[in-house]
Amino acid sequence: MAIVYVGLGSNLDNPAKQIRQAVKTIAEHEGIHLLSNSGLFSSAALTWHNEPQPDYMNAVIKFETAMTPHKLLDTLQAIENSQGRVRNQKWGARTLDLDILLYDQLELNDERLTIPHPEITQRAFVLYPLNSIDKNLQIPGFGYLADLLNKVSMDDVKFSGEMQ
Q1: Are 101 and 121 in contact (CB under 8 A)?
Q2: Catalytic residue among 20, 55, 87, 99
């Protein structure tokens, strides 16, 4: 069984509800055993092509699975699609975004998937929720989470409440 961390994000159609539904769906999936989840964190969306977006809600979950990374990616993308995810603009507004952040201590980079997530070290909206569930985590190829937290600002990231 692999220990996996997945980042969840949403900024459309009641983002907190979208994330809670995704966590419920993932936890109920055969072959996944949910271990813990962060609370909900809000963060300002980046402006893309001069188009403002609503703020994001983010969270991180930790679970065990025997699925391969690619099978897990397929499963997570199916959940995104079931919750109305439309992929028509990179970094555009979305109902749900599910990113595999870590898969054990695996380092993988192929045409479909990069693990650890390639932008994990720069995203306060990922690092802070990740820290709330595993303070001693080591990110393969990047070092300890505690050290990475010292390099990002939490100015735009706010704790918004428990997952419940």
Answers
A1: no
A2: 99
Say whether 85 is catalytic: yes
Residue 20 is among the residues annotated as catalytic for this protein: no
Containing 9, the helix (H) or strand (E) segment is: strand 2-10
Reduced to 3 states, what is the DSSP secondary structure of residue 117? coil
**Domain extent listing, the chain:** 2-161
Catalytic choice (13, 20, 55, 97):
97
Reply yes or no: is the peptide bond before residue 54 cis, omega within 30 of 0: no
Whole-model pTM: value is: 0.93
Instruction: For residue 13, indicate whether it is catalytic.
Output: no
Class for the domain spanning 2-161: alpha beta
* Catalytic site residue from 20, 55, 74, 85: 85
The per-residue pLDDT for range 78-128, each reduced to its tens digit, is 999 888 766 665 555 778 999 999 999 999 999 999 999 999 998 999 999
Q: Using one digit for the tens of pLDDT, what is the confidence trace for 52-65? A: 788 999 999 999 99
Is 99 one of the catalytic residues? yes
